[in-house]
Amino acid sequence: MEYSAINEWGSRILRTISARLQQTEAALIKNASQLRHCTIIEFLDQLRINIEQHGRSTEAQALGHVIVLCNTEKDLGGLGIHHQSWPAVNDATLEELDFLVNAWLLAAKTRKLHYDQQHEDGGAPIKRETDAMTLAQKILAHHAHSVPRASGVRPGDFLRVSVDWIIASELSWQGMSNSIQSLDAPFQPWRNDRFWLSGDHTVDPRNYQEPTPQKLLEGIRKAKYEYKMTENQGANHTIMHTEFCRERAQPGMLVLGSDSHTCSAGCVSSLAIGLGAADVSAALGTGETWIKVPESIRINFVGKPQWYIGGKDVILYVLQQLRRNTFAAERVVEFGGAGSEWLSFDARFGICNMCTELGAITGIFTPDGITKRFVEGRRGRMYRSECTYFAPDEHAEYISTFDIDLGSVEPFIAIYPSPDNVHPITEHLDMLFDGCFIGACTTTEEDLVLAALILQVGLDRGLTLAPGKRIVVPGSRPILHNLEHLGLLEIYSKCGYTVTAPGCSLCLGIGADVAEAGSKWLSSQNRNFKNRMGKGAIGHICSAATVASSSFSMSLTDPRDLLRDVSQPLFQSHLLHCQRARTNRSPAKDMDIHAMSAPAETQPCYSNPKLHFIADHIPRSAPEEQHTGGRLTDTILGRIYRLGDFVDTDAIIPGPACSTCITDDDLAAHCFELVDPLFRDAVRTSDQKIVVAGKAFGCGSSREEAVRALKGLGVTCVIAESFSFIFGRNMATLGLLGIALQDADFFEKAKHQGSIRISISERRIDLDNDSFEFKLDAMEVRLLQEGGLVTSWKKHGTKVFAKLCQERSERSEMEVLRGLEW
């Protein structure tokens, strides 16, 4: 059959589909001449129908999704082709269309392969009654290849789990790709449609021509085409968490991200956990990871908030009440309670986003009608068709339970340099600032709309603008699009705000926006650590509403005065406009992929996790590795370097070094350079290679470069009262010994520059005449023996987590550890 009658680009796409489906072009197109004058959408839809008729429903659905993307505006993440003819569309867009057809058809194949692999092992599903479990326990049990007992999982269990999504930024992708390259082996993601990559941390249209951003931009471009990624967002389309949570994450999913604010996806009841780059790289290649089932705390929201109270003030109130790295430290924070009905998706996003500032592993909301309605409003069927709604059991056990009265929440401010140094703004009125910043991932669309309406009231009152800098950064292009259509960007401009492309901006302070040394800022971001916004800059954090009201006088102002004149109906009308823009699906009526869902039920239908039980599950080392030292020296000798509580990763390795340094030695040259410049010489020349610190060492960012900087400098061990979850895991993953020790006597006697001896086999620390015992988890020992996760990955390939979590006979964890001694 002659296909020259079809447009050149149509013929090319036809060849792409033919190759992917391994079917002849004649089987896909019966009458090519009928398609000569078709629009692009009509052409693709005819192919979709023919593919469906050949019994390839999965591939037809994938092509249907490409049609959805064609009908979606560019600002909203689509191609914006609509019903255009071939000549009306430029070659670059058609090139992208061909790529997406290829990528989504490949995704249909990898989805099936992943499904088949998941059902190869794991034993038969359990149908008996199980122990009472928390929400996190249910999701982990559901994703486990096998559970250690027929009754479910408990805190402390080691599990090998499958993952649903991997997310990364262009900056963390640099570290991930370095880990992948070190494998010296071919690499492909386990699924090309479940890797979300967004350029947001460093890159900005204003610095695209600079060497470091160019390198990072090339990295995400290369990943897109090499891995045929369906979810590569390119540069500055969205802050990585914003559109991922709005449009991708689904209830019951397990998400891993190489960023500490991955926890944001708990707003849609995903269990979303931030890890280091090497950890996330291994999960990307295998579709698996390991986890020690964490404990949970429960926060029940009660009462009703004022209409203008958003998620930011709620989480600041939680931080004030609980304090960081206390009850939530290395635990999951589960949110629920009757007051949750007053918390929108955006409010929940802001709350979960800052659970990492609490010191938690993650935060997650119990799914409810708000969750269900939000997810079912999405355009693409595949982003709303894999929801699994779990609810915690009535008698689930929590370490602590708290009631938070939303009626007590008021505008708060977290005073530099701690996110839990929270006070009502009325205690610090008239504090002066050099700049006001509204932005970062924690600032939602709802926040931006309300802040703009506050600014309009200020303009209407004739308030003057004091000298100072004002910056607003919407979280994504779809949000920017909505603000522009509502006329709200114009309000920001009238009030002296510079509107920049979506990105981290001043919240990270390593891109185009960097705060000057000594400058004082009021910001709606989520962290106010030292040097976070720029070397020597000072930042206090609050809600976008408070920033907006304060930006006229450049002094802290209670927003409630201006809020009295903000029209609540207008605010709700604007939010409804934004909702309609997000849920406006394709008008096509003859494609099931596009069909509108039936009206949502008020509450979701809750499921029980599908548990797979293999009797001999407890992880242990392989026989040949017992009683051998592996790569870890049995005895460590040296002198102590003392550090305090809450040493964050921004202090250990400044953000700018993460974007420019490649090797551990490069990173070591910047270790503690801004806060403790004597540290490097002490480690190198005075043999102070053992760090002894206080609480929550390594809190803050997920950057594994902090561990690598310490290793590159020669640090052999870190002993602390506690570690942040991500930092502690990064140490084991990268082969650096970390010891958590809750013994006040040790920390009193461990003096700066004092001598210390650590015996790994005896699990003992010696200080002069005093000895202190410590424990190590089985997985920590295994990874340390292997020399870190990447080394183990090289050795075992895609079976790395099956090997690390090797199931053997029933033994207690202490027996496992004794078996690992050498």
Automatic annotation (TrEMBL):
Keywords: Iron, Iron-sulfur, Lyase, Metal-binding. PROSITE patterns: ACONITASE_2 (PS01244). Residues 207-552 form the Aconitase/3-isopropylmalate dehydratase large subunit alpha/beta/alpha domain. GO terms for biological process: L-amino acid biosynthetic process; proteinogenic amino acid biosynthetic process. GO terms for molecular function: hydro-lyase activity; iron-sulfur cluster binding; metal ion binding. PANTHER family: HOMOACONITASE, MITOCHONDRIAL (PTHR43822:SF2), HOMOACONITASE, MITOCHONDRIAL-RELATED (PTHR43822). This is Aconitase/3-isopropylmalate dehydratase large subunit alpha/beta/alpha domain-containing protein. It comes from Zymoseptoria tritici (strain ST99CH_3D7).
